[in-house]
């Protein structure tokens, strides 16, 4: 099966190469941030999934379930593995709570504004909530605020003159906010 069949919108070599390049950049940020520490594997997986989800949503306006749904158990397993060496389990519990809180927040937005927020964004929010929550509450808040500020800026820039409505795919901005928050959180 071709990448386009699995990931809608990644049907051209340039789009696929751009997605790989974006993943490499996110991966470099993650390695720089964590070094060779226990959470590196988990956040490396975030880099991979974030690039694919963002590219697919950007091009095809779809968040692929084939990536997001398996990300829940994989993320959980990787964050458990990140907690094992230290024996500290509060970051894992906080990650679970944050996944529910951020997913619930996006679900409320999706129900209130169905034309502006899809269920794919809601599912992706749960995954990002786990990663941001593992780092701390401030990372979750910062990542969410950065995502909405960036999306609002893009929305203003994308709106044609004289038109009141425009739309932007949210997943790339959610991923951007998460990456910036991961990088900024110590």
Shape: globular
Q: What does the largest sheet look like?
A: none
**Number of helical stretches of at least 4 residues:** 8
- The average pLDDT score comes to 90
Low-confidence stretches: none
- How much of the sequence is in beta strands? under 5%
Query: SSE string, helix = H, strand = E?
Result: HHHHHHHH
Q: For the terminal residues, how far apart are their CA atoms?
A: 41 Å
Helix content: over 70%
**How many individual β-strands?**
0
Structural class designation? mainly alpha
The Cα radius of gyration reads 16 Å
Question: How do the helices and strands line up, and which of them pair or pack?
Answer:
Elements: H1 3-6, H2 13-34, H3 40-60, H4 65-83, H5 90-112, H6 119-135, H7 137-158, H8 171-184
Helix pairs in contact: 2-3, 3-4, 3-8, 4-5, 4-6, 5-6, 6-7, 6-8, 7-8
Short description:
By secondary structure, this protein is mostly helical. It contains 8 helices and no strands.
How would you describe this protein?
76% of the residues lie in helices and 0% in strands. The mean pLDDT is 90. It contains eight helices and no strands. The termini are far apart.
Labels describing this entry:
186 residues; mainly alpha; 8 helices
């Amino acid at each position: 099966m071709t990448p386009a069949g699995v990931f809608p919108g990644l049907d051209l070599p340039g789009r696929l190469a751009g997605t790989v390049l974006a993943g490499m950049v996110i991966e470099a940020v993650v390695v720089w941030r964590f070094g060779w520490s226990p959470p590196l594997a988990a956040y490396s997986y975030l880099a991979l999934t974030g690039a694919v989800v963002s590219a697919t949503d950007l091009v095809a306006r779809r968040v692929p379930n084939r990536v997001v749904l398996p990300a829940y158990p994989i993320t959980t397993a990787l964050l458990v593995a990140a907690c094992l060496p230290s024996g500290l389990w509060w970051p894992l519990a906080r990650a679970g709570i944050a996944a529910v809180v951020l997913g619930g927040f996006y679900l409320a937005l999706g129900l209130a504004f169905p034309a502006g927020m899809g269920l794919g964004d809601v599912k992706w929010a749960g995954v990002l909530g786990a990663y941001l929550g593992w780092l701390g509450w401030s990372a979750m808040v910062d990542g969410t605020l950065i995502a909405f500020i960036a999306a609002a800026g893009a929305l203003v820039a994308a709106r044609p003159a004289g038109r009141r409505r425009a739309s932007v795919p949210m997943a790339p901005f959610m991923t951007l906010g998460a990456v910036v928050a991961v990088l900024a959180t110590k």
